[in-house]
Every structure is written in structure tokens, then in C-alpha cells.
């Protein structure tokens, strides 16, 4: 059994909207092992993105504790969270957040420059199928191509933890499969811990661990001892 790398312990997140308290997370408890590919699945509004944002240091919790590699990140100061986001975390958002006046290669290189042990930017773009588009600007790329630049940028940081919010949302079926295979390979071959949130339950077959959320609560956590290769999944 892999060592627990991520630990959520009774995490709560409440947003106050005037006199109304919105409970985005309620007593969320789960673990993810080092080098695992974990899929968090649930319907829209279930709390998936809130989980990801808190784990990525972009939001704070109301109660509970989050450990990453034994470090209590929920107790970090703003400065510590900035360092944590810069060096330890790779993000793949639904929105690509590319710098418009930089080429695809320059966008990936920019991320690689701020971390300790980056991977080669050009190699990462080639890995996501954009070898011939490196010198194009974001406006010259399709939505799917921009998403692949964003994935290459996150991978180039060589993060301890890669967080992906619906990473294939803008991609066609075949490209989406290729990206999921790349993420699975990064987990298996480089020991990178990868967490993907999705509403598509078909993708759970490829995961080492599946966490199901509903109405802000973790309703089940399953370890998959024989995850399926991405090529065998259909959705």
C-alpha cells in the first residue's frame, strides 16, 4: 500500500452570503497515496472544485486539517502558500489562463522558470501533441490546443502534485484520451501524484483511487487494485 501523501481530515468550508451560510464542504475526509492517480467524481455543485482549490492553496478551509507529505498546509501563512503553489503544485484549470502575448513555448517556459526542477518545455509540448504549434500565440490556437498548452505548462513544473479540473473538457474524444494517457503515464512512470476532478464516472476505471462526493460530503473512497489502461476506456 502506498504511503498517504494527501490527507484531508474533517475539512469544512463555509461561505457566508449575507445572512446565508453555504456549506461547500462538510466533514470531508480522505487520503491519496504517493504516486497515485486519483479521480474525484460527482455532479456539478458537489464540492469538487472547492476541494481542489483548498488543496492547491488557492482557498482556505473553515475547519479541519490538510496534510501534504506530512506538512500541515492548512496552517500555512500567505507567504508559505505562495511558495507551495510555486514549487509543489501543478494546476490544469477549465480555463487556460495563458499569457496572450507569449507563444505556446514561452507560456510553458514561463512556468518552468519559477520552479526548482523543471522538465523541458519543448518536450512537454511535444508530449501533448503540439510539436508543430510551439511558436503560435494563444489566439492562433483552438480551444483544445490551448488546453494542451496549459497541461504542458503544468507538467513542465514537475510538481509533487498535479491538480486537474475537467482536463479534457475542451478536447475531442481522441485528443482527450491521449491527454488522459499522458497523465496516467506521468503517475506510473514518474511517481507524480495526480488528482483529476470530473463529472464523468466512466473515467474512474483508470484511477488508482476513486473519491465520490455529493452535496459537499465524501460519500465513498475506493482503492482500485487493477486500474484500466486509458486505451480501454470508452465514454
Strand order of the largest sheet: 6-7-8-3-9-10
- Give the end-to-end Cα distance, rounded to a whole number of Å: 29 Å
Mean model confidence by pLDDT: 92
**What structural category arises from helix and sheet content?**
alpha/beta
Q: Uncertain segments of ≥5 residues (pLDDT<50)?
A: none
Query: What would you give as the CATH superfamily?
Result: P-loop containing nucleotide triphosphate hydrolases
Question: DSSP helix count?
Answer: 6
The rounded Rg comes to 17 Å
Count of extended strands: 10
- The share of residues in extended strands comes to 25-35%
CATH class annotation? Alpha Beta
| Helix percentage range | 25-40%
Question: What composes the largest sheet?
Answer: 6 strands, mixed
Shape: globular
**Could you give the order of the helices and strands?**
EEEHEEHEHHHEHEEE
Count of domain modules: 1
The second-level CATH architecture is: 3-Layer(aba) Sandwich
Question: What is the fold named in CATH at topology level?
Answer: Rossmann fold
Amino acid at each position: 500500500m502506498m504511503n498517504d501523501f494527501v490527507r484531508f481530515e474533517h475539512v469544512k468550508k463555509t461561505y457566508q452570503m449575507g445572512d446565508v451560510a453555504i456549506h461547500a464542504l462538510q466533514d470531508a475526509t480522505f487520503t491519496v497515496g504517493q504516486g497515485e492517480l486519483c479521480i474525484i467524481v460527482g455532479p456539478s455543485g458537489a464540492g469538487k472544485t472547492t476541494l481542489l482549490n483548498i488543496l492547491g492553496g488557492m482557498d482556505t478551509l473553515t475547519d479541519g486539517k490538510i496534510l501534504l507529505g506530512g506538512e500541515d498546509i492548512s496552517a500555512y501563512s500567505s507567504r508559505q502558500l505562495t511558495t507551495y503553489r510555486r514549487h509543489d503544485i501543478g494546476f490544469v484549470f477549465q480555463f487556460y489562463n495563458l499569457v496572450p502575448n507569449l507563444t505556446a513555448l514561452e507560456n510553458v517556459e514561463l512556468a518552468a522558470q519559477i520552479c526548482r526542477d523543471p522538465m523541458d518545455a519543448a518536450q512537454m509540448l511535444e508530449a501533448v501533441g503540439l510539436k508543430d504549434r510551439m511558436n503560435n500565440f494563444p489566439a492562433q490556437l483552438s480551444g483544445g490546443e490551448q488546453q494542451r498548452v496549459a497541461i504542458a505548462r503544468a507538467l513542465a513544473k514537475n510538481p509533487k502534485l498535479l491538480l486537474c479540473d475537467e482536463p479534457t473538457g475542451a478536447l475531442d474524444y481522441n485528443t482527450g484520451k491521449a491527454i488522459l494517457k499522458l497523465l496516467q503515464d506521468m503517475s506510473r512512470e514518474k511517481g507524480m501524484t495526480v488528482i483529476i476532478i470530473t463529472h464523468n464516472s466512466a473515467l474512474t476505471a483508470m484511477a488508482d483511487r476513486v473519491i465520490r462526493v455529493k452535496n459537499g460530503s465524501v460519500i465513498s473512497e475506493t482503492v482500485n487494485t487493477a486500474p484500466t489502461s486509458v486505451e480501454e476506456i470508452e465514454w
